[in-house]
Design goal:
Distance between the termini: 22 Å
Protein name: Oxidoreductase
CATH architecture of the largest domain: Alpha-Beta Complex
GO molecular function, one term: zinc ion binding
CATH superfamily of the largest domain: Medium-chain alcohol dehydrogenases, catalytic domain
Number of helices: 11
Number of strands: 18
CATH topology of the largest domain: Quinone Oxidoreductase, Chain A, domain 1
Strand content: 25-35%
Helix content: 25-40%
Radius of gyration: 20 Å
Keywords: Metal-binding, Oxidoreductase, Zinc
Cofactor: Zn(2+)
Number of domains: 2
InterPro entries: ADH-like_C (IPR013149), ADH-like_N (IPR013154), ADH_Zn_CS (IPR002328), ER (IPR020843), GroES-like_sf (IPR011032), MycoS_dep_FDH (IPR017816), NAD(P)-bd_dom_sf (IPR036291)
């Protein structure tokens, strides 16, 4: 039987979000209903609200979530009612050319629930953010979007792996393949950049250089594992990184801003045959110009990192286990916990730069 729950809706471009009653249908084949326990407030949700993702309003916001499976539809075998899960936006198909070549983290046919959640008052269909829509007491997702993890972890910590923290850690571990003794520079020390710093530290990097224009963010970066910091408002970051790496540049440079000027910094701050990883998300109008001879002459690799090139079924349980062992403190990413009706305020706090992550606890 369909259920009515509270959820946070973005009704139109740049309009304030509001809480509405939404209808969550019973799960159909391959679907699951999840009782949401916690959901992080991510910049991607703000982009949806601003119309930067699409114009398919109204959106049911929220996607960085953890909760308990309440019910499943026909054919679901990987999760069952009562399982504690992290929601992900990469439900791999297992059949596309990437999956069949043994690279499911590049799956080209990820999927979401077939049925739509709706507004109770009007019956209007909702567009769930990243196919999840977890600023709600319950949500409907594809069962493949549910990754079972150890229930000993706190929901407000676990949910962060659903997006930003996984993107950053994966950019270091999976895409950049940071190894023991490497030198790493991370440009941009928001949530994703700090996660890349934490991932580089976890991998055993000898030197992790954090670059940002905000001293508050650089101080936080040190708590995540940065060994050195560079304020690029005051210092040329390329020269600073080279000076800190014996004049050579870093083995891996992770660009977590998504702007042409910071990408150029990353490109020239890497060592010969080094790796640049772009995990910051650019906007459609941005263009990059580099001398092709420099691209050729410096060798190495220029990579983009999609969701940290993660495979949720592999990476989420591993990182939760590391957290529970005390080897990866995911709690450092949680600045505050808030109520469902405080999401609009959390968006405002993003602009001030004084939060790493606000997390809605239901």
């Amino acid at each position: 039987m369909a259920q009515e729950v509270r959820g946070v809706i973005a009704p139109g471009k740049d309009e304030p979000v509001r809480i509405e009653t939404i209808v969550v249908p019973d799960p159909g084949p391959g679907e699951a209903v999840v009782r949401v326990q916690a959901c992080g407030v991510c910049h991607t949700d703000l982009h949806y609200k601003q119309g930067g993702i699409s114009d398919d309003f109204p959106f049911l916001l929220g996607h960085e979530a953890a909760g308990v499976v309440e019910s499943v539809g026909a054919g679901v075998t990987d999760v069952a009612p009562g399982d504690f899960v992290i929601l992900n936006w990469r439900a791999v198909c297992g059949k596309c050319r990437a999956c069949l070549r043994g690279r499911p983290w590049y799956c080209f046919d990820t999927h979401n629930a077939e049925q739509k959640m709706t507004l109770a008052a009007t019956g209007q269909e909702l567009s769930p953010a990243l196919g999840i829509g977890a600023f709600a007491e319950k949500t409907l997702v594809a069962a493949g979007q549910c990754t079972k993890v150890d229930p000993a972890v706190a929901p407000q910590v676990a949910g962060l792996l659903g997006c930003g923290v996984m993107a950053g850690i994966g950019a270091a571990l999976n895409t950049g393949q940071v190894g023991r003794g490497d030198t790493v520079a991370v440009i941009g020390c928001g949530g994703v950049g700090d996660a890349a710093i934490a991932g580089s530290y976890l991998a055993g990097a000898a030197k992790v250089i954090a670059v940002d224009i905000d001293d508050r963010k650089l101080e936080t970066a040190r708590t995540m594992g940065a060994t050195h910091t560079v304020n690029s408002r005051e210092t040329d970051p390329v020269e600073a990184i080279r000076e800190l790496t014996g004049g050579f540049g870093a083995d891996v440079v992770i660009e977590a801003v998504g702007r042409p000027e910071t990408y150029r910094q990353a490109f020239y701050a890497r060592d010969l045959a080094g790796t640049v990883v772009l995990v910051g998300v650019p906007t459609p109008e941005m263009k990059l110009e580099l001398p092709l001879l420099d691209v050729f002459g410096r060798g190495g690799a220029l990579k983009s990192s999609w969701y940290g090139d993660c495979l949720p079924s592999r990476d989420f349980p591993m990182l939760i286990d590391l957290h529970l062992q005390g080897r990866l403190d995911l709690g450092k990413f949680v600045t505050e916990t808030i109520r469902l009706d405080e999401v609009e305020t959390a968006f405002a706090r993003m602009h001030s730069g004084d939060v790493l992550r606000s997390v809605v606890v239901l």
